[in-house]
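Hi,

Apologies if this is the wrong queue. I'm a grad student, and the batch job for Glucose-methanol-choline oxidoreductase N-terminal domain-containing protein from Hymenoscyphus fraxineus produced an output file that my downstream script rejects. I'm not sure whether the problem is my script or the file. Here is the sequence I used:
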Amino acid sequence: MSATFDFIIVGAGASGCVVASRIADTGSHPSILLIEAGGSNKNVAQLSGEERFEVAFSPNSPLNWNYKTVPQNHLTGQEIDYSRGKGLGGSTAINFCGWAVGPRDDYDEWARIVKDDAFKWYNAKRCLRKIENFHPEISIPELKKYIDPNIGDHGDSGMIDLTYGDSWIPDVGDIFKAIEESGLRTNKDINSGDPIGMGMSNVCIHKGERITSASSYLANKPTNLEILTDSGVTRIIFESKRAIGVQTIDGKTILARKEVIVSGGALNTPQILMLSGVGPAEELERHGIQSVHELPMLGKTLQDHCFSSVGVVMKAKSRDQIQPHLQNPTPMGWFKLPSVQESNEYRALPLPKRQFLQATTVPSIELATHIPPSLASYEMSPDTRFLGAMCLLMNPQSLGTVTLQSADPNIAPKIDPQFLTHGYDRRVMIEGVRETMRVLSAPVYAVDTIDKVGPTDDSDEEIWKHIRGNLSSSWHMSCTARMGTSIDSACVDSSFRIFGLQSCRVIDLSVCPFVPNNHTQSTAYVIAEMAAEKLIAEYDLQSRREGSMKLVTKL
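Support response: The file is valid. Your script probably expects a header line. Output copied below for reference.
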C-alpha cells in the first residue's frame, strides 16, 4: 500500500462509504484511502434482517462501540445507551433498518440557515432517488388503502434496497383503525416529503438481508479505492492550518495530497478533531493538547431524538400474535400536537423557531408502534399479547455536548446529551406520551386490553414521572460540528470545509444544523451524496470509471 493518497477518508459509516465510492468512481481516478477503526463486518449471520433488534445492544459485539452517556442527573441519574456502529458500514450495520426521510420543510430550513440552495428539498429528493432502489410490494394487500406510495417519488435503481419487509404481523392493520378512531390522519407514504400521519416505514432489508453502506456502496468499486480496517486514527496531521495526513493507532503516518475528510460520526468526529488540536481552546488546554486551530463550537451543539415507551397488554388471539416478527416494518407516523403550539413553552421560543415549527410538514412527535417489549421494559407472558409504542421528541431545543475524557484516543468521548433540559422539550414529551396513550386506548384495542404499561394517570405530574424514569436515545445523534455561515455559531461551511482550516472537511451527521425530523441514516446518505458532488465539481474529478475494489487489512 502507498503511504500517500489523494484523499483520505476517516470512518466507513453511512457517509464515509458513500463519499469514498462516489469520488473514487470518477474519470480522473484519484487515489483514495478509506480508514475504519473496526473490522470488515463480513459475518453473514450479522447481516441477517432478523437480528436487527439484538445486534445493536450486544455488550461484547465487535460491531458496537457500546458508548454510554454521563449520568443524566436532571432525570433519574441514568446512564443512557449510546450505541454506535463499528466496522465497515458503521451504524448501518447495527441499526433497526428503518428508513424515514422526514419533512421537505427540514431541507428548505437547512438551506435557509446555511444560505445554500443545494440543501433545499428539490435537491435532497434528487439525491434520494440516486440512493434508493425502492420495492413497493406489501405483504397484506388489504392494507393498500393505508400504504400506497407514488412510485414516481422514489428511485428504482439506486444503491440501497428499500422494502416493506417480507412478513407482517397479522393484526398490524389495527393501528390504522386506532389512528382513525382517534381522529388522526393516516399517510400512504411517509417518505414523500410530508410525513404527517400514520404510515408504514420502509426497511433496508431485502430478501432477508440487511443492506448497509458497505454492502451496497463498497461492492465492486474501483481499484483506486483502498480500504484499511482495524486501524483507528489517533490524529489528523497538520502543516500550519492545512491537513496533510493522519496518524493511525499503531503509529503509522499516511499522507493526503488533496484532503483529509472526517466521517467518524457525531461522536467520534469531534473526538478525532480535538485529539488533533482542533476545537474549543479550554477543552484542548484541559487535556494538554497543543492547539492547532480554535474551533469554539465543536462538540457543543449535540442534538438527538429521545423517546419514552408505553404499551397495552391484551388477551392473546393466536400464537402468531405472540411471537416477534423481527423482519416486520414498523408502523410509524409524525404528528403535530395543537396542545404544544398553544403552550407557554412554545410561545417562549424565538420567532424564527416558531415560524419553522408552524410549517406544514414539520411535526411535534413521532409515534412508532409494534416495538419489542424490552424497549418498554415489559416481559411477555404466554397468554397475552403486547402492543408497545414509543413517542419520539421531534425538534428538540436542548443542546448536549461531546468532549474528551482523556487525551488517550483509546478512551471513549464524554457524552452528555442533556435530554429534556429545555422546557419546550418537556412539554412536547408530556403531550406526546399523553397522545400516544390515547391512541392505544382506541376502541379497536380497548376491547381486549387487560393492563397498561405507562403513566398511572393522565396528569402532567404522573406522565413526567414516567418519562423521567423511562427515557432512551433513538441513536440519532447529530449536530456536533454543525454547518453554518460563521465560526461563531458553527464549525463548517456549506461545502463541508472546517472554518479556518485548509484541506479538511467533515462529512457526516455532525454537520446537521439541527437534528432532522426523521430517522437519520437517510440524512447521512444524502449528506454524503451532496458532499461528493461538491468535491467532484471542485476538483473537476468528472465522469465515471468502472473497476474493482481492493480490501486491505494491514499496511
